[in-house]
DNA sequence: AGCTCTTCCTGAAAGC
DNA sequence: TGCTTTCAGGAAGAGC
């Protein structure tokens, strides 16, 4: 599922081919994940693609409307890949994958396609002033924030650290895979309360999050379900997972059996030996460590 | 403030 | 074997 490293990989791929391209034609399939489908059909044809950006797990295609009619409106297409979203460029006669719902014909003869099996993704055309409203509440990007900012965001909260890492308003871009992998690397139990983390633990978590994300970007993301990059290629970081989907297997560090528990409503994988459960209130469901 | 539950959706996997 | 049920999960909203 696309999290920060996967979205970053897609963004880098699109950055190499999209800027400067003009959109010639739009075709839509199912549109229940698009905020205003008619707005796409009206405004995308003729628009020129500018910068390709990433905000947490969001992709943003900046657009220059070709029509010089009224005020030259700055538009942007905001895209979230949800769990199974794919953005791929291909020749227009390439086989159409099932569940492909957006086709953008480009002026270099290529096509940009959006495929999303579960349609948990979203697509929205943002007018001039709407960008701040759509993205303003996002937390800082963990690769851009300082350790002090990270410590302030996590260390002041009474929620479980797993919930905090997943909360896009606290830090943006981390999902279930990278939360679990980061916590394992930092040797912190997912049920720990943010405000109870020691300075050294915050430091380890900050380092772990950044190291895991950077390494995952280097390996072009994790392909666990349907993720592929903008060329249709799978990533390789799933080969480096230490806890995610490794329930019952041996911890790479100590050999104990990896456990799975529901934390913050999400399946959480951790080593009960390396990542000590908090002693007092929050207990892992079913007792035990 | 933070937790749990629900909703959206499909396909894989488990259950019978 | 084949049908049915459960589950997974990003994000938002409801209710406590």
Descriptive report:
It contains 7 helices and 10 strands. By secondary structure, it is of the alpha+beta class. It has 2 domains: 132 residues, MutM-like, N-terminal (N-terminal domain of MutM-like DNA repair proteins, Alpha-Beta Barrel), CATH 3.20.190.10; 94 residues, Helicase, Ruva Protein, domain 3. It has a 4-stranded antiparallel β-sheet, covered by helices on one side. Strands 2-3-4-8 form a 4-stranded antiparallel β-sheet. A two-stranded antiparallel ribbon has the order 9-10. Helix 1 packs parallel to helix 7, helix 4 packs across helix 7 and helix 6 packs across helix 7. The chain starts with a helix and ends in a 19-residue tail after the last strand.
Features:
289 residues; alpha+beta; N-terminal domain of MutM-like DNA repair proteins; Helicase, Ruva Protein, domain 3; 2 domains; 4-stranded antiparallel sheet; 7 helices; disordered C terminus; DNA-binding
